[in-house]
Design goal:
By secondary structure, the protein is of the alpha/beta class. The chain is 45% helix and 11% strand. The strands form four sheets. The protein has an eight-stranded parallel beta barrel, surrounded by four helices. Strands 1-2 form a two-stranded parallel sheet. Helix 6 links the parallel strand 7 and strand 8 (182-185). Helix 6 (158-178) packs parallel to helix 7 (200-221). The protein is globular. The protein starts with 10 loop residues before the first strand and ends in an 8-residue tail after the last helix.
Length: 444
């Protein structure tokens, strides 16, 4: 008997459906821009929030009701694998992601932990043989255990640094064994609280060395997945070394890593950094560094990482606009690094949440594709910067201008005329597309 036997496989029923266990907009076989929705969106389920999250917060104990949580230890880990692949099948998602401690409990030693991982990975491999769901990426949790109180690859303690290296070594071996298309580095505690006790240069240098060691070992074992950095500001350390895409790029460039890494961008992390989701995606895209996406959203009234399921259609549209402009996510995907709210504690809520997120990005995909097809934003932006396609502007772009040339041009100018940026009108246009796009991707 399964954990979700009372729920049929989730099917697309269209925008008018009232079935809470049906997709209203996500039709995996529908083609948008020459590819199916499944190919364009590459959805992934986050193992940690979905199968290990218990609903606890700083003010309350865990309250989630999960039919497998009466078990403990390895029995619990095995039951979660069973539940996971059942849910993957119900939602027909192509991918999943995990941290090492999500799938198997830590033992009393690193050797015992690795044995636990090997046992669960063997079980996952067996399930994957008959499943359509593959591993998008895995990573090592190097922030939860007290040993990482001062960081992992940026720790002041060389023993902790070595332990972190051993965990990533094992993680890369698991990535190869399970066919992970990517491997993610999220520096949960790679940062500092105060400079009064911090050797900033040594920590950053050691972090750079650590990533090079990872690249070397991946090459040694023949693992060819894409390496991803996941930026996040503030939480949990006040000064994270992976604050946002821009600071991450500076770090990668300084340590000669930029040819080997791309970014896994999370929506809620972007807003914590004071950016919009689409800003981070655009910054990565124009620099050829957009690798994958953690699809969630935050609460603008709360100053922490709430990891809500994405339902903001404006945000999903602008996100998909950047992803389509990127030529897609390639070997990346849209991973639901999101958790149901504490009040949504029943197991069925896991399906409701993923349906909502998948439908929201399906709408975003259709609207963004139509905006690009109609050239709405492209035409406006091209016209707005048209002065750089001729005359003095063209000389600037082609590198033929210097200050003498600019001064000569400026001295000959009369009144300089600017034109409106039409921000409100452009937002109204996006609203028009959002309100009028139909199931076929066109405007009514």
């Amino acid at each position: 008997m399964g954990y979700f036997d009372h729920i049929n496989t989730i099917q697309y029923e269209g925008a008018q459906s009232l079935n809470p266990f049906a997709f209203k907009h996500y039709n995996p076989e529908e083609k948008i821009g020459g590819k199916t929705m499944e190919e364009q969106l590459r959805f992934s389920i986050a193992y940690w929030h979905t199968f290990t999250g218990d609903g606890s917060d700083p003010f309350g104990a865990g309250n989630m009701q999960r039919p497998w949580d009466h078990l403990q230890g390895m029995d619990l880990a095995k039951a979660r694998v069973e539940a996971a692949f059942e849910l993957f099948e119900k939602l027909n998602v192509p991918y999943f992601c995990f941290h090492d401690v999500d799938i198997a409990p830590e033992g009393h030693s690193l050797a015992e932990t690795n044995r636990n991982l090997d046992e669960i990975v063997s079980m996952i491999k067996d399930y994957m043989k008959s499943s359509n769901t593959k591993l998008l990426w895995n990573t090592a949790n190097m922030f939860k255990h007290p040993r990482f109180v001062h960081g992992a690859a940026s720790s002041n303690n060389a023993d902790v640094y070595a332990y972190a290296g051993a965990k990533v070594k094992k993680g890369l071996e698991l990535a190869k064994e399970l066919g992970a298309e990517n491997y993610v580095f999220w520096g949960g505690r790679e940062g500092y609280e105060t400079l009064l006790n911090t050797d900033l240069k040594l920590e950053l240098d050691n972090l750079g060395r650590f990533y090079h060691m990872a690249l070397d070992y991946a090459k040694e074992i023949g693992y060819n997945g894409q390496f991803l950095i996941e930026p996040k500001p503030q939480e949990p350390t006040k000064h994270q070394y992976d604050f946002d895409v821009a600071s991450g790029m500076a770090f990668l460039q300084k340590y000669d890593l930029s040819d080997h890494f791309k970014f896994n961008i999370e929506a809620n992390h972007a807003t914590l950094a004071g950016h919009t989701f689409e800003h981070e995606l655009r910054y990565a895209r124009i620099n050829g560094m957009l690798g994958s996406v953690d699809a969630n959203q935050g609460d603008t009234l709360l100053g922490w990482d709430t990891d809500e399921f994405p339902t903001d259609l404006y945000s999903t549209t602008l996100a998909m606009y950047e992803i389509l402009k990127n030529g897609g996510l390639h070997q990346g995907g849209l991973n639901f690094d999101a958790k149901v709210r504490r009040g949504s504690f029943e197991a069925d809520d896991l399906l409701h949440a993923h349906i909502a997120g998948m439908d929201s990005f399906a709408v975003g995909l259709k609207v963004a594709h139509q905006l690009i097809e109609d050239g709405v934003l492209d035409d406006f932006v091209s016209e707005r910067y048209s002065s750089f396609t001729q005359g003095i502007g063209q000389q600037v772009v082609e590198g033929k201008a210097d200050f003498h040339v600019l001064e000569k041009h400026a001295l000959e100018l009369g009144t300089i005329e600017n034109h409106s940026g039409r921000q409100e009108w452009l937002k109204a246009v996006i609203n028009q597309y959002l309100l009028n796009v139909n199931a076929d991707g066109g405007l009514k």
